[in-house]
């Protein structure tokens, strides 16, 4: 059963008593009672998108926030039921109208290099770091339109240590990690194409395959899915891939890399691959 009392400051406080358990959830101020801003928002048994869905709420339904954990909110819904929802999806300013598996996901995007680490250089001396950031930002924009909680290892041209990047994914308890790079060959104009790398078998390999499956309209050779001993994916505790999206020191590859339309198409296909993986495994 549940009832309301007025506290000393005049706020209504909801007291919920579940008979037989003696569980009392109280002192939840009215300011923690929020309207759901989108439809088909799944209620999860635990604060992770892979946990069991135990209910659904829709736009305009009210939920009472009890506590927050791992960027998720534990809520009371339908007056007496309790579960978890992504806290970022309770933001009334969200542009998302309908929830999805992708919207429930936290993804770390890692633009390679930055700051004093230029990465590979084009034959014109333009640095890799400039284009990894541009591509990652485009993927971030695509994912955010779906409601995804996107975390960037860097958002501007500054140095980020290699070990910091996988640690960020662990600290934020992310669900996926994608690192963006462009390749280079020992001899200019001798290497071409793009490659999708993973280190750990299982989920990381499956994520790599899902993304590579979608990379079909870029005008470069698809070198497929390969294992790669790169620290940012080797030392990662979540499914992680590293994408080499063309050769900086191949003039024809670089002509595409610096073209916004190429990056837009690549970002669209990478986003589609991430979505494929999430829909298939969550």
TrEMBL record:
Segments forming domain SH3b: 31-93
A Pfam family hit: SH3_3
Gene Ontology BP term (one): cell wall organization
Domain MurNAc-LAA span(s) in chain numbering: 166-275
Record field: transmembrane: 12-30
Cellular component GO terms, alphabetical: outer membrane-bounded periplasmic space
CDD domains: MurNAc-LAA (cd02696)
InterPro entries reported in the protein's UniProt record: MurNAc-LAA_cat (IPR002508), N-acetylmuramoyl_amidase_3 (IPR050695), SH3-like_bac-type (IPR003646)
Keyword Zinc-finger on entry: no
Keyword Zinc assigned: no
Keyword list, A-Z: Cell wall biogenesis/degradation, Hydrolase, Membrane, Transmembrane, Transmembrane helix
Molecular-function GO term, any one: N-acetylmuramoyl-L-alanine amidase activity
PANTHER family with a match to the protein in the record: N-ACETYLMURAMOYL-L-ALANINE AMIDASE, N-ACETYLMURAMOYL-L-ALANINE AMIDASE AMIC
Protein name, per record: N-acetylmuramoyl-L-alanine amidase
Species, as recorded: Fructilactobacillus cliffordii
């Amino acid at each position: 059963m549940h009832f309301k009392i007025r506290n000393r400051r005049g706020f209504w406080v909801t007291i919920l008593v579940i008979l037989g358990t003696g569980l009392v959830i109280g002192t939840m101020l009215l300011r923690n009672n929020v309207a759901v801003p989108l439809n088909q928002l799944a209620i999860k048994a635990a604060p992770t998108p892979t946990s069991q869905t135990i209910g659904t709420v829709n736009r305009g339904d009210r939920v009472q926030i009890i506590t927050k954990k791992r960027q998720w909110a534990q809520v009371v819904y339908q007056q007496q039921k309790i579960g978890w929802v992504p806290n970022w999806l309770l933001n009334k300013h969200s542009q998302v109208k309908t929830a999805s598996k992708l919207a429930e996901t936290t993804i770390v995007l890692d633009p390679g290099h930055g700051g004093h680490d230029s990465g590979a250089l084009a034959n014109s001396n333009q640095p890799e770091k400039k284009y990894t950031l541009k591509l990652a930002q485009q993927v971030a924009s695509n994912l955010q339109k779906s409601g995804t909680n996107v975390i960037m290892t860097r958002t501007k041209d500054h140095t980020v240590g290699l070990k910091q990047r996988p640690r960020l994914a662990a600290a934020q308890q992310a669900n996926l990690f994608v690192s963006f790079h462009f390749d280079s060959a020992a001899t200019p104009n001798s290497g071409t194409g793009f490659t999708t790398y993973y280190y750990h078998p299982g989920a990381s390999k499956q994520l790599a395959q899902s993304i590579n499956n979608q990379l079909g309209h870029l005008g470069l050779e698809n070198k497929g899915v390969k294992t790669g001993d790169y620290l940012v994916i080797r030392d990662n505790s979540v499914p992680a891939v590293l994408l080499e999206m063309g050769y900086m020191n191949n003039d024809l590859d670089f002509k595409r890399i610096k073209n916004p339309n190429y990056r837009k198409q690549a970002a669209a296909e990478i986003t589609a691959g991430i979505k494929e993986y999430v829909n298939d495994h969550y």
